[in-house]
Amino acid sequence: MKIKELKKGDFFTKKPLDDPKESQVWIRGDYDRSEKRYECQRFDDINTFCYLPGNKEVYTGFTF
């Protein structure tokens, strides 16, 4: 699934994991028009951000 297909606030991982740790789970945020990327923050640390392009492949089928 691509990150642009997720809704704001959805959980995802960057790698296919069945049982991820809290530090491996990310939350999709808003679209930043200046960066032309989606803002994402780590589940366990709200001060850790990354910007991902809309066509980045992410994974949502995991138990958390």
Q: Give the structural class.
A: mainly beta
How many β-strands, per DSSP?
4
How large is the share of residues in beta strands?
Answer: 25-35%
What gross morphology would you assign? globular
Low-confidence stretches: none
**Biggest pleated sheet:** 4 strands, antiparallel
Description:
It is a single chain. This protein has 64 residues and is an all-beta fold. It is built from no helices and 4 strands. The protein has strands spanning 11-12, 26-32, 37-42, 49-52. It has a 4-stranded antiparallel sheet, with no helix packed on it. It is globular. The two termini are 18 Å apart. The mean pLDDT is 95.
Please render the helix and strand layout as text.
Layout (H helix, E strand, L loop, with lengths): L10 E2 L13 E7 L4 E6 L6 E4 L12
Antiparallel strand pairs: 1-2, 2-3, 3-4
Please give a handful of descriptors for the protein shown.
single chain; 64 residues; mainly beta; 4-stranded antiparallel β-sheet; 0% helix; globular
Give a short overview.
The chain has strands spanning about 10, 25-30, 35-40, 50. With about 60 residues, the protein is an all-beta fold.
